[in-house]
Amino acid sequence: MTGCERIAGAFEGRAGRAALMPYMMACFPDEQTSIAIGLACAANGADLVEVGIPYSDPLADGPVIHEAATQALRNGATVTASLRVAKAVSEAVPTVVMCYANLVLSMGWEPFAAELVEAGVSGLICPDLPLEEAPEALAALDAHGLALVPLVAPTTPDSRLADIGSRARGFLYTVSVAGTTGERSGSAVGIDAVVERARANTPVPVAVGFGISTPEQASSTADAGAEGVIIGSRLIREAATAADPAAAVGLVVKDFADSLR
Amino acid sequence: MTEVEHRFGPYGGRYVPETLMPALVELEDAWIAARNDPAYGAELGILLRDFAGRPTPLYRAERINELTGGDLWLKREDLLHTGAHKINNALGQALLAIRMGKRRIIAETGAGQHGVATAVACARLGLECVVYMGAEDIRRQLPNVERMRLLGATVAPVESGAKTLKEAVSEAIRDWVATVETSHYIIGSAVGPAPFPAIVRDLQRVISDEARAQMLDRTGDLPKRVIACVGGGSNAIGGFAAFLDDAEVELIGVEAAGEGLDSGRHGAPLTAGGRPGILHGSLSAIMQDDEGQIAEAHSVSAGLDYPGSGPQHAWLRETGRATYVAVNDTDALAAFRRVSELEGIIPALETAHAFSWVMANPGERDLLILSGRGDKDLAEVIARTS
After folding, report:
1. Considering only CA atoms, which of A228, A133, A126 is closest in space to residue A174?
2. 3-class SS at A22?
């Protein structure tokens, strides 16, 4: 089964109204604990897990994920170790890796794609690789049956959204608000329109992320038509502060899963 | 000329979150329109002349020449309002923001010179101004922080990483991602996603347009070499631009060797052969580890304390059109004092790197871009050398 097929299966076989897609950071707080966190996500209702690779200069991330990355790197996190984490989690649940472009470029698109296959990962999200810069990455991932998952934002004009949507693999990562990752209160204004616009412009499922931090927000995002809901900073905060990070993240993931039944 | 470069050879591009992409397209369109609009040029020209103090003089460094036997000429950007070349770009982009209907300005600053220049432009033009500055740089450059606040700007301390210029740029970009529909980001150097490197170069080109004419007028000839310090590289690219087609004019960029190129604690990605990598939205020569994590730069001068370089500089290096060298902290500090004593000009620590190189390697008809004055650096220099 290719990565693209495994992602499609995750959406088709989802347990609730929308696929639950928790984000975790590899090697945060350390390698073994982050594996335990990923497995706890899988055991508590995650349909797909996003595995972030710590990066020194994460431009699309708010303070919570930025700080987690800084700590992980300080504790010796590497790309190699992060891919070991992804491999362990991929045995329990489909995964996509989220990684800033320079780490991929440094290894080369083709070798990086081969590493993802080796780790059992199904796709890649590069938050700083817009459509114009993506052709080489897309070719390398396509050759391995992996999904290069693009992002669209509320600021993306319609014509551009159609271009991105038609080239999307796996799912379309739909950013719900203009801004960086992080928890926000209330629901994004006009989320129904954002989801509807995305769905009209792509053949792949639409997953919504950035700012979803409560089960209520997740539920209303699913009600708006999102086929996947991505939870990030809320879970990183739990991993950063709980005495038993895996157990604590598992409990929160279960709350989100229940809200999507 | 209607085209704005997205790439310089392989370098440049737009490696940014999708949220910013429409704003970069809008900015490029606005820049093409402004460049072709005589009204924009006239308004900027009057501000540069009457408010900022252009044209700046070309000055022959007689006592340095007596000492070295060379013939060194200085382009006096230090005499501009706010004390550095940064005002050329800040005024140009602030007017551009107004044309785009954006009344909130974001900026980053290292030494504080770009922050002060942007705060001045915003005060003059009635714009809201937020300046991101690393907490370590706030400590090093307190007088500039006070200036920005006096001018009505908000100075936002950045506590992540090494708390210097790299983190300040990152934080400014994060602000812009969240406020892009109402804010314009005035980037201070010739870095960032396209079209920023081209816009900043075009706005700083006034340095070499003036200097080229002044050299011809005063010496009857072009300079043999143009020398400028390079952090991100805005004064250098502005100082080089008008000479790019003069093949006989040698272009030399002077980076910060910090505690030494071998120490790893420097700010010289071009000289040290930094691998191509992505930093702050463009592909260029950068300082990074084997896996692509961005390294921390180090320099006594806050304005050169940056692990990246403008993409056009990376291309000028690769094609051999420009040469890049580096000067360490100790030599820069010595040049800071020497130039002050010899010429009665206190140069910025950034520019002191260029002085150090040219005084050790004197030539006939050298043009040095004196990018800024050093009043801001007094406390730091006295603390380090006393």
Report:
1. A228
2. strand
Tokens describing residue A55: 């990066």
Beta carbons of A146 and A3 less than 8 angstroms apart: yes
For chain B, 386 residues long, give each residue's pLDDT as a single digit of tens: 568 999 999 999 999 999 999 999 999 999 999 999 999 999 999 999 999 999 999 999 999 999 999 999 999 999 999 999 999 999 999 999 999 999 999 999 988 999 999 999 999 999 999 999 999 999 888 889 999 999 999 999 999 888 889 999 999 999 999 999 999 999 999 999 999 999 999 999 999 999 999 999 999 999 999 999 999 999 999 999 999 999 999 999 999 999 999 999 999 999 998 899 999 999 999 999 999 999 999 999 989 999 999 999 999 999 999 999 999 999 999 999 999 999 999 999 999 999 999 999 999 999 999 999 999 899 889 988 77
The answer to whether residues A11 and A94 touch, using CB atoms and an 8 Å cutoff, is no
Chain A interface mutation, best of B16, B19, B20, highest count of A Cβ atoms under 10 Å:
B19
Reported as half-sphere exposure (CB side, CA atoms, 13 A), residue B163 has a value of: 11
On whether any CB of chain A is under 8 Å from the CB of B157, the answer is no
Indicate the residue of B17, B160, B291 with minimum beta-carbon distance to A79: B291
Q: How many CB atoms lie within 10 A of CB B9?
A: 13
ipTM for the assembly: 0.95
**Three-class DSSP category at B255:** strand
Tell whether A73 lies on the interface with B, counting CB pairs under 8 A: yes
Tokens of B256: 């910060």
How far apart CA B352 and CA B302 sit, in angstroms, is 12
Which amino acid is it at A168?
Answer: A
For A38, B232, B328, B345, the CA distances from B64, given in Å and listed in that order, are 65, 27, 20, 11
Partner B contacted by A153 (CB < 8 A): yes
